[in-house]
Amino acid sequence: MTAVAAIDQASKKSARKGEAVGVPVRRLGQTYDDAIPDFWFRNNAFLSMFFTGFSATLPEGEDQFIYSVRLFQKKITNPVLKAQVRAFIGQEAHHSKEHDALNETLKKRGYPLGWIENRIRKLNRLMRKHQSPQKQLAGTVCGEHITALMSDYMLGKRPELLEQMAPAMEKMWAWHAIEETEHKGVAFDVYDQLVGDRNLLRRTMMEVTFFFLILNTTHALALMRQTGQMKNWRMWREALGVLGRMGRELRADYMDFYRKDYHPWQHDNRDVLAAARKKYLGEDS
User: Fold this and answer.
1) Arch. (CATH architecture) of 43-281
2) Contact assessment for residue 173 and residue 154, using Cβ atoms and an 8 Å cutoff
3) Which of 71, 75, 197 is closest to 127 using CA atoms?
């Protein structure tokens, strides 16, 4: 049965949720409280602050992803892609809400996440004012590539990293990684069908990679000032070892993006996705 036929036979509710096109919209709705330790990732301050800072960027970051795709939504004619875009927007909206809930909890502990949120909000305003719709969508495609690689790393290549997080954080990051994997080709397909400029995409990827690394590193260092761990050299060795290995092991997959014929599902990790859905969400694919 073709994907189009599957949509036709699915209920309207199912299609709206994206289930018929492989992008189901779920609400996690966890509670984040004092049970979560400050150093919730391997009991390592910098790893915890790096991903805490990353979390602080996500509500505004996901909002920009949604905004850029919506600039092209009315031009999409393929019914499968239309359904996938609706589901992409639904998934990203729920990611924003979940990270907002986590971020509010951590703000109450004194972490300056509001500064990070405001910084990303200002960047969004600048992009919307000065960048073309095509450039903004290219930025989303590139951001989605990076998050898809990180998701595959956590779910498939190094799943032990998720297991080294506090339970609520393990569940949240696994859920997020699963959905990032499910929709990893959606923004790419919108861009490929309605823009198609691979040179712009490759140039944008270099810019997005630079800013991703700079912003997340500076955010983590700013948060580190409150931890009392700045001179814990063992902690630094461990953290930089984990992040350095991640960079090395993802390099080949990252570089694939620059190929002229690249598509995200050339990295076919559906088996990893199915196992993660069963483990963390209790779903049988």
Assistant:
1) Orthogonal Bundle (1.10)
2) yes
3) 71
What percent of the chain clears pLDDT 90, i.e. is strictly above it? 92
Cβ pair 219, 111 in contact under 8 A: no
Length of the chain (residues) = 285
Against a cut of 0.85, is the pTM above it? yes
Domain boundaries of the chain, sorted by first residue: 43-281
Task: Please state the φ and ψ torsions of residue 36, each to the nearest 5 degrees.
Answer: -80, 120
Q: What is the pLDDT of residues 155-191, one digit of tens each?
A: 999 999 999 999 999 999 999 999 999 999 999 999 9
Q: How far is CA 161 from CA 20, 50, 220, 230, 238, in A?
A: 31, 14, 18, 23, 13
Contact 101, 30 (CB under 8 A): yes
> 52 with 210: CB under 8 angstroms?
no
Q: Say how far apart CA 85 and CA 186 lie, in whole Å.
A: 7
Query: Coil, strand, or helix at residue 163?
Result: helix
Quote the tokens at residue 111.
């972490």
Do the Cβ atoms of 21 and 7 come closer than 8 Å?
A: yes
**Contact (CB, 8 A) for 137 and 187:** yes
Confidence band, pLDDT 50/70/90 cuts, at residue 284: confident
State the chain's mean pLDDT as an integer.
Answer: 94
